[in-house]
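Ops channel
N.P.: pipeline sanity check, posting one input/output pair.
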């Protein structure tokens, strides 16, 4: 992945989230994706979401619960 493709990916994810387009957010994940978030523990009882369906439930809930929250990238690093 180049720096430019990494930034395009991040900007695409951020734009999707900021418009609360859960389908567009999910397009950034594979079916077998694992996502770790301490916030997920409150929603599903564990910090790791293990597939796209769990991610869909998580992001749908978060999009309804945080209507005014906006995401912006402060920095991105490859590694």
């Amino acid at each position: 992945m180049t720096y430019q493709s990494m930034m395009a990916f991040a900007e695409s994810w951020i734009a999707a989230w900021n418009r609360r387009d859960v389908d567009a957010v999910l397009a950034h994940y594979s079916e077998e994706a694992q996502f770790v978030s301490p916030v997920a523990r409150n929603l599903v009882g564990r910090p790791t979401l293990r597939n796209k369906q769990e991610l869909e439930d998580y992001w749908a809930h978060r999009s309804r619960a945080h209507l005014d929250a906006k995401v912006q990238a402060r920095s991105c690093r490859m590694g």
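N.P.: looks fine end to end. Residues 3-18 form the longest helix (16 residues).
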